[in-house]
Amino acid sequence: MPTPFRHTEPLPPKAATGRVAEVYAQAARDFGIPEPAPFVVLSSAPALVAPAWALMRESLIAGPGGRTGKEVAAFGVSQANKCRFCVDAHTMLLHATGDHALAERLARGQEPADEGHARVLDWARRTRVPGAAREPYPFPREEVPGYLGTVLAFHFINRIVSALVTENLLPADAQRLRPVRSLAGRSLSRTVRRPAAPGAALPLLDDPGPGPAWAAGTPVGPAYAALSSTATMGAGLLDADDQALVRTTLHAWDGSHPGLVPDPFPDRRERPGARLALLAALAPYRITDADVAAWRRPEHTDHCLVHLVAYGAFAAVDRVETALTAPATRPTTPPTSRETS
Length: 341
Known about the structure:
Layout lengths: L17 H13 L6 H6 L6 H13 L5 H14 L3 H14 L2 H8 L7 H12 L17 H21 L13 H10 L1 H5 L26 H12 L8 H13 L19 H11 L6 H7 L6 H24 L11 H4 L1
């Protein structure tokens, strides 16, 4: 049977122990999927699994705001990032919420009939462009932690999936068929519609800190802080010059998808680590076997590759988060190495 993973060979979920096994158990209970591919592929670097899961759970699943609206936001982010796997997943999850007409409108490339959902979708798509989706947000202030946490979680997850997971959500791409995605969604409906208690993922984290102000003291804040701290550990796989290149490139990024010609990324023969990190940040779907092979050394295990991809992915998340939540008068100086390492 073909593997759903690219460039890595994570351990089978049945071999998981410790917190990774706890995440799988919690995902089965609260997400309805016991071994979600985005978290299985992270398991080669176990420290990343719980923070990534916690941010998704505490925002999308248990955070403030209705599940259907947050699924629309996750769909919009995934669409903006060209993550077909996640677009298909959220179409299926919209079926699970019971809004089958909305799910199929989005699957056909149409806008939502509901004006509120249309505003959320437009806002979520624009979050990829730094500064284009600031306040006023298309949801009540008390729902900010849930919606912002959701879009930032999927700016990270989209990049991990696009880099390291194939596009096929189901075998033989079966989710492209309406009856299949509808049936798959209905099979998850009981779990998706069941209320989830906020904070259940926080015991999986190691003293993460309170998190950013926009999280307003909700469990979304510690989850975001934990992912930030863990994902940026991958900076240690690059030298100081490559770290500086990643920072300055992300600071100048306008949210666009880089063109193919000329290749805007560092040469894989000269700066393979910086190339991988920047591809993960800006165009993870363009990471090739040649890119990975150029960087691999005997000491570079799957653990290292996942950490490097996560570092690049979170560099983009950090750029989006800063622009999304900062006042218009915020200084525009590039971040220091201390802020990103």
